[in-house]
Amino acid sequence: MRKKVRSAAACLMILAVALNGCTAKTAEADGEKYPKRKILLSTTVSEQSNATVVGKLFAEEIEKATDGNIEVAVYSSDQLSGGNMSKGVEMLTQGAIDCAFEPVDVMAVLDNRMYALSLPWIFDSYEEAEACLNGSGGEFISKCLEKKDLKTLGFIHNGFRQLTNSKHPVTSPEDMKNLKLRVPGGDVFMKFFSELGADPVSMSFSELFTALQQGTVDGQENGFDLITTNKFYEVQDYITNWNYSYGAFAMVFSSDTWDTLNEDTQKLFQETAEKVCKIGCENVVNNEETQKEIIEAYGCELVSLQEEEIQAFQEQLDDYYEEMTARYGKEACEAFGVEY
Fold it and tell me: What pTM, to 2 d.p., does this model score?
């Protein structure tokens, strides 16, 4: 049995979704191709970040294609869940949020095997990662989410994760010692940094800039898109470019919403999602060099690690890899091309 939504705001949103569904069914009975309704689309990141930009593009395309019959309202920074990422996922599964661009590593709270996508250094390029998501990796994620009443429409790059901090350059495992770093929840991140001697702290993304500014944490790890669009470089002095973990956003619909859409609307949403997700992936790849220039122009020290330097970190992680792959299992590891 699904858990009841506890907040009054969430209850109102569920009621709105139900009313939207009733309106849609009435319109379908009248033969309207795209029944009038409003879709609530949530992203975890800021207005300027790529996932929100892509969400707004989806909204524009849908409203144009339906002559305004379908309105897609885009809410950034987890506004609908009060800035709480985990709560946002919960509301999505309950139908209080219709649609979202959610990081796969955040949705892994629903099935921790999806954390296998975040294991360190499993992809050498965006091309490799995209091929995986267009193949066995994407199929695995979609299957996991379907069991949680979510319909997956596509994926975009969140980016290869880099390390920023306010203390000193990080070029070797010794430099990690005692750095207090904000990381997403999940042992794939927490244990990784613990093994390297850092002090990882789980914290909501919406709280991160203030935590960096006030020195609550020394640093964080995210892709260049989030580092620049959230201006983390303004409160960090050192950035290590090491591509240690790949992240993706999944574009997902609540099944409670998806199942009320007629066939024409579902087809339009799927085709539009594929179109905008392709653009979203291209944005991340094409913008990285400019984002690096922005960071360096501000005065941050950006260090790109060489292969032998990265290998020094990897040599510290034999026990970590063994534990994590055993935890996530053969099916997940094989789906993401991880040696098991």
Answer: 0.89
